[in-house]
C-alpha cells in the first residue's frame, strides 16, 4: 500500500448526504409507468401435499391482472449443489413456487399481480388451495427420529449433510486420561437477520435491450442473475440485475430469494413492470431465518489449563430448503472446520450435521455458525477455568495462538493476529475502569454483576481456496474491479461487491484516491449492476474490502501505471521517474513539470494520435483478485459487564469493551459502525430474539409484538479499541470487519451472565437467555 | 478474417422484430415519473443584439414550472476548436442559449419548462424578448463584401477558415498551355439532413448514482457527455448519456445540440426529469442544416483526354456557428483535400473557405462536401469529353487510378479499389438494358432521355491520422469494444459506435458470431451508453464497421484466445491445438473432445479455482482499433437514365444502376439499404430539397409544404451490383458503406439531366435542378 492520505482516516461517509436527506433510492422508491404489484399466496400448513390450487376466483377480483402457479410460469427450481464429491450431502430442489408439496407455513404457492398492492392482497383471499396435510417435522428430535416423516421425498432421511472430520489419532485416549474434561451442551435460538428494509424487487422487460431488468434488494446481484436466467431459461445476458440503495442484509439477502425470481417471471410473462415488497409479517416468518443449532462439545484440559482436545457434535436446523449458493452445508461445515478458533488445540474430532425441518429455510446470517461455536468454546474455557481454579482470562492466555503462521489441527493456516494482545488489552481496559472492584462492591450489596470475555478470530478473505475447501459447486472466490478515468480526470470504480450499509462508496474511494493521488471527491463507486462488470460475488463473509477492495486497489494501480506511462512518453523519460500526486503526474527530477490528469486524459481520449503506438487509447484498467491461501483472520476480544436484576430477571449491560484487529482499518469510523451494529445483533441473539414455532409448525413470532428486537435502550455504548496487524494476503492490508461484532457478543454476554450467576451455581448455555431464565436462576439462589 | 458462416450473408436484421412490431423505444417513448416538458423561446430576428429578456410573465402561465435564460443556468459555451496551429481558422463560441446576440431566426434564447408540452408552448408566447436588430448576412456575397456586418464580433471578418493548399509547382503554366481547359461554377442548395425522427432528449438527475442522465437522440453519445459536462461544470462521469432507438441522423445528430445541453441543465437545476422533443418546424429551420457550397473550378486536359490539372475555389456557407466537434473547417477542408478523387490528377491547387452567415448552423450531412465536389469534378469530365469529342465514360476510363496504392497530388494514399472495374461494369449494365438504344428512339420521338454517370471514391476508416490531418483538436480516430461472455455462453458486445438505422445489432453480431463460432442468436450488441465503454466516437463518416467493427473483431478474437487457453489448460495441450466451432472448444486432434462455452464459462466464473494461475477469472476482452494510414477508400460508379418532361420540366428517373465496392460487405442487404437510402438523399439534393431564406434571413421552408422531400413516387428502384476489394487496413476487410449512395447521386443525376439537355445547348451546374429550370431550358430549345 502506498503511503496514504485517506486510508486509515475516518473520512466522512460519502453516502450520507444522499441518505440523510432522504434522497436515497431504495427498491420501494422505484416507480415505473404501468407498474403492477405482486403478493404471494402462501402455505397455511407446515407440511402437506398440494391437492389443488384454484386461482380462478383470484383473477376476477377487481384490480387483479394475473395470477400464476409454478406450472403457469414454467419455472425451473433453485437447486444448490455441493460440487466436489461429498457423499454425505443430499441436494434438494427449492421450487420458486411450491408445486407438489409445501414444507413450511408461509411458503409461496402462487403469485397474484394487481394494479396495486391492496388489490393484490384482496386477490390472495380469493385463492383456493387445498392441502393433504402431513405430520410436520418441527424439531431436531422429530427430524432425526426413526420413521420420521420426510421433509424431502428425494432424501432418504431428514439429514442433508453429515460429516465427520479430523478425528485426531488417539483422541479418545486423550480424553480418557485428561485431568479435566468439561462439557457444554448449547442450543441457540432461531433468529431473523432482520434488515430494516425487508426484501423487495421491481422487475420489467426492456424491449430495447432484450433484457429482463430485475431491480432487487440483494447482496449478490450476479448470483441472482445466474439463478434467474436459469430458472426462466433465458441467456444470462438477457437478465440484468440492478441493486438500488439497501437498508441492510446481514446474509438474509446473500442467498437467492424465490419471490424475486417469481416476480421477475411474472414481469417477463406480462411484459409489464411488477413490484413486490415483502411485508413485515412475511419478513419475520417466511423469509430466510438463521442460527438454530445444537452443540454437544467436550474439551479436555491439562492441570495447567492447556487444552488437550475438542470433541464436538453439531446439528444445524436448516429449515425446509437448502439455500443457493451456499447449500445446507454452510453452517455445519463452517462450525466443524473452524471451531478450534484462536486456540492451540492439539486434538480434534467433530461431527457436523444439517437437518431439514418444516420451518422457513435459513441463510448464513452475519457470522455464520461462528457466534454459536465461539460461544460454546468460550463457555468450555470458562468452565475449565472454574474446575481448575484458574482465572478465566489466564486460561485463555495460556492457550491462544501466538506463533504465526500457525497451522491448526483443522488443517487451516492462521496468518498473524493479535490474539494475546487483544486479550490482555481488553482485560486491562475493563480493569482500568474498576469493574472488578465494582463487581465486588455490588456483590456485597447483594447485586449480581458479572464480567465475561470472548476471544475469537474470524476467517475472512475467503478466496477460491477457502470456498473450494467448503466443497461448494460455485466457488465465490475472486472479485473483479474496473477503474476508469474520464476526460475530466474523475474516476469511476466498478466492483462486484454490493454495499448494503457497509459504506463502500467511501472506503473503496479512499483506496483508489490514495493509490492515484487524487481528491476523494473525484472518485465515485458504481456497484450493483450486473451489466457493468462480468461477475462479482457480492458482499458477504466480510469479503468486500479484503477481496473486492484488493481488486479495486490492483485496478487503480494498473491505471496509475498507464497514467505514468503516458506522462513518461510525453517527457521522454522512464515511467518510474514519474510520480502521481495531487491529481497530476510529476517528474521526480523536476516537480515543476506537471501533467494533470485532465491533460493526460485529453491525450488518452481526445488526441490519441499523440499516444505512443504501444499504448492503447483510453484510461481504464480491470483487475481480478483472489486469495489462494486459507485466507486471513481478523480477531478481537470482547469484554462485557452485566448486572442481573433479581426482580425482573433482566440482563442489563453496564459496559461493553471491544478490542478488535481487522488489520488495516480503511476507515476506523466505518469499522466502529460495523462493530457496534454487529455487537447489537450479537446481544440480540444472546438475550432477546427468537423465532418459535408451535407443534404444528405455525410460527408464533410474526410481528414485533412477539419477536423481541432490542432497541437503543437495551444496547450499551461500546468502547472500541483498534489493534492493527495488517494482512499479507490482501492488497489493502485489511482483514474484514463485517461480522466480528456479532461473533463475539453472545459468548461474552453469556460468560458475563454466568459470572454473575456464579453464586447461584446455575450455568446457562442456551440462547437467548431470557428474563424468565435469569429470574428463575436468581430466585433459586434466593430460595436456597 | 476467419472463414465465416455469417459475414457476407444477408442475415435478417435483428432489430426488425422489435422495430416492426412497435416495440422500439425512441426518445419520445420515454416517460419518467414527474417528467416536465421543455420548449425554447427562439429568436425572431436573424441578426440582432438582445436588448432584454423578460420571462416573468412566462413563469405565471398555468402549467409552467420554470423558465431560464443562459445566465440563469450559468452555462458554458460550446466551442469547437481546431487544435494544431492553423492561422486561417477563427474559433467562435456557440452559447447554449443566446446571450448578447442572436445570429439566426430560430436560435434558442430561453428554455421554458412546464408540466406538458402544451403549457410550455403557451409559456413561449408570454416571453418578452426585445432585440436591437442588425443587418443580416444571408449570402456569400453579403458575407464577403467589404464592410460587411460581422456575424461574430470576435472574428475580424466573416471568413472563419481560409486555406490555400497544394499549389503544385508550375500549375499556372499547365493551365496556360493545356489543349483543353474547362470550367464549372456550381452552387449547391442548403439542405436539411431530415431524419424521420427529429431531435429530442429526456434528462434527469439520478441521486443514487450522482449522475445527470441524458437520454438523447445522438450519433455521438460520448461527445455529448464531454460537452454537457464541460458546459454544466460537472465531472464527466457525473453525466451519463444513453441513446435509445433512433430514427436516423445522417450527420445532423453527429454534432452536439444546444437544446440537449439546455434541457439537461434545466433537469439538473430542477432535479426533475425534463423532456424536449423538437417539432418539425424547428427541425426544418432551427436545427443543423448542410450543403450550401459554391465551387469555381477549372480543369486542364490534354488532347487525349488525360487530366493535367485542377484549380479550385470552394466557399462553404456554414451558417451562424461552428459545430462541435468538427468546426466550420470540416466542409472546406474535406473538399480541398479530397477533390481529385478517383482520378490521376498531376497538378492541383485549391482555396477553401468557410464563411459564417445569419442562417441556422450546419453539420456534416452524409457525404460531407463529397456530393458537391464529386458533382463538380464529374461535370468537368463531362464538359471536357464534349469539348474533346470523347465518350464521357471513355474519358473517365483514361483517368481513373488503376495502380494501387496510389499517392495523389493531394498527398493522400489510396488503397486498392475497383475504380475502372466499377466504371466498366456500370456502363455495361446500362448498355445491356438497352438504354442507349432507348435514348436514340426517344430522341427520334422528340423526348428527352439522358444518361449520366458518376465515378467516385469515398475515404472511410478515418483514424487518428486522417482526423489529425484535418487539424481537429479532438481527433475521433480509435474505437473501443468489449466482448464478454456470460455463464450461459451468451455474448454481449459493447461498442462506442451508435447505430441510428445502420443495423449494427445485426452486423456487429455477425462479426462476433463468426469469430467465436457461435450462433448469432447468442450475440447481443449493446450501444449508446457512455457508462458502458470508456469512450467511443459514435457513428459518422462511415466509420462504424471499418473502425468500430474492427475493434469488435479484435475483442472477439481476444476472447476466443482466452476460451482456447482455458480449454487447452483443461486438456493439457497447446492453445493452438484447440478450435472454436459451434459454440464449443474442440481438440483438433480429437474433435469428440468438447468443452462447450457453458462448460468453459462455468470454470471461468463459477469455479475459477480450476483455472491455471496465469489465467484470470472472467470471460471479457477489450480491444481498441485505430487506423494509422490515410484510411481506406470505398468506391462506386452510379449510372442514371432520366427523362425530362417538356410540359412540366419534371425530371423522371427511369433507371438507376449502382456498382459499388465497400470491400467486404458484412451484410449485403444492409449495404443495399444504405445505398438505396443514400441515393434517395442524393437525388433529393440534386432535384428537390432546398432551404431558402428571404433577404431578412427569414427561412421560407418551415414545413413540408415548402421543403420538398421526394417520396417513393420520385425515387426509382435501384439496381445494385457489388464488387469486393477487401481493405487491408480494417480487421473486417470492410470499407464503409454509409455515405456512398449520397455522394454519387447528384453527379450522376446532373450529368444525365445535362445529357438530356444536350440538344438545347443549356448546361445546368447548380442544384437543386428544379422543374422550373428544366422547363425553361427545354422551352428555350423549343423556342429556338
Automatic annotation (TrEMBL), chains A, B:
Organism annotation: Streptomyces inhibens
UniProt cross-references to Gene3D superfamilies, sorted A to Z: Aldehyde oxidase/xanthine dehydrogenase, a/b hammerhead, Aldehyde oxidase/xanthine dehydrogenase, molybdopterin binding domain
Protein's UniProt name: Xanthine dehydrogenase family protein molybdopterin-binding subunit
UniProt KW Oxidoreductase keyword: yes
Native organism taxonomy: Bacteria, Bacillati, Actinomycetota, Actinomycetes, Kitasatosporales
Oxidoreductase as UniProt keyword: yes
InterPro entries reported in the protein's UniProt record: Ald_Oxase/Xan_DH_a/b (IPR000674), Ald_Oxase/Xan_DH_a/b_sf (IPR036856), Ald_Oxase/xanthine_DH-like (IPR016208), AldOxase/xan_DH_MoCoBD1 (IPR008274), AldOxase/xan_DH_MoCoBD2 (IPR046867), AldOxase/xan_DH_Mopterin-bd_sf (IPR037165)
Domain Aldehyde oxidase/xanthine dehydrogenase a/b hammerhead: start-end pairs: 21-135
Keywords noted in UniProt: Molybdenum, Oxidoreductase
Domain of life: Bacteria
GO MF terms held by the record: iron ion binding; oxidoreductase activity
